[in-house]
Design brief:
254 residues, mainly alpha, 9 helices, 57% helix, elongated, disordered N terminus
Length: 254
């Protein structure tokens, strides 16, 4: 997303916070608080996730704790935005202590990139699982469009992208963001190469096609997130897929 069946390497994670060798309770502070791909077509906005009561005697550990913290962070960031976010908000949503959240994220200036990288790795794993079951490059292209576009107005993953891209980043942060953005390009390139090699797609200029395709999908995504009325009775997914397939149709095929 030929790309190999397993896809490109996932983006590198940020290094663990210095001096963090275990969770401790601590106070929370305000943080910085997403436009990019998600996993589905437009629909209705989801309800806020319920808070999980904190049981300090049964705090989750390891991968379970990290995943719970990440999922909670995605939701809280989307709801509250960057400026108003506190570590305590994530802890409350996850049903964990603030100390555990500080252990997993370290400090606020690395929170957004860490959560975005986790979110995209999780999304790509599910996309690859679906793509591996697809019967043709055309089905994979359909999946790519579905996973890229927001599911609905206010989609949490896309909101996270918007807020992360709006921040100022150092060189390391820009490198991580570039890897995440390039990851979508690479997945689309792989689908196009497979379709071309099998004779299912026209022999287009793949790098140039990818730039235009992703630009179109990003524009449609902004429309969905904004809630533009043009998509109240039309499908952004169907519109995008029709446009892409029209250009990819081999010469001589109706």
């Amino acid at each position: 997303m030929p790309m190999s069946e397993t896809g490109p390497e996932p983006p590198r994670r940020l290094p663990p916070p210095k001096g963090a060798d275990g969770p401790t309770d601590g106070g929370a502070g305000p943080t910085d608080g997403g436009a990019g791909p998600t996993d589905g077509g437009a629909g209705t906005a989801s309800r806020p996730a319920p808070r999980i009561p904190i049981d300090r005697k049964r705090q989750p550990s390891g991968d379970e704790a990290r995943e719970r913290a990440m999922r909670a962070a995605v939701g809280v960031i989307a709801e509250k935005g960057a400026a108003a976010l506190r570590m305590a908000d994530i802890a409350e949503r996850a049903g964990m202590s603030t100390g555990h959240i500080l252990y997993h994220f370290g400090k606020k200036d690395r929170l957004l990139l860490e959560v975005l990288a986790w979110s995209q790795t999780d999304l790509w794993a599910r996309f690859q699982e679906a793509a591996d079951r697809a019967a043709s490059p055309a089905e994979k292209l359909d999946l790519f469009v579905r996973f890229y576009l927001p599911r609905h107005r206010g989609d949490e993953r896309y909101a996270l992208w918007t807020q992360v891209l709006a921040q100022r980043h150092d060189e390391a942060g820009r490198r991580i963001l570039t890897e995440l953005l390039d990851g979508w390009d690479e997945r689309l390139e792989a689908i196009l190469r497979e379709g071309r090699d099998l004779g299912h797609f026209a022999d287009v200029d793949i790098p140039e096609f990818v730039v235009r395709a992703v630009a179109m999908l990003s524009g449609l995504s902004e429309d969905v997130m904004f809630g533009r009325s043009r998509w109240q009775h039309a499908s952004p997914h169907a519109f995008a897929l029709t446009a892409l397939e029209r250009e990819l149709r081999p010469v001589g095929r109706g």
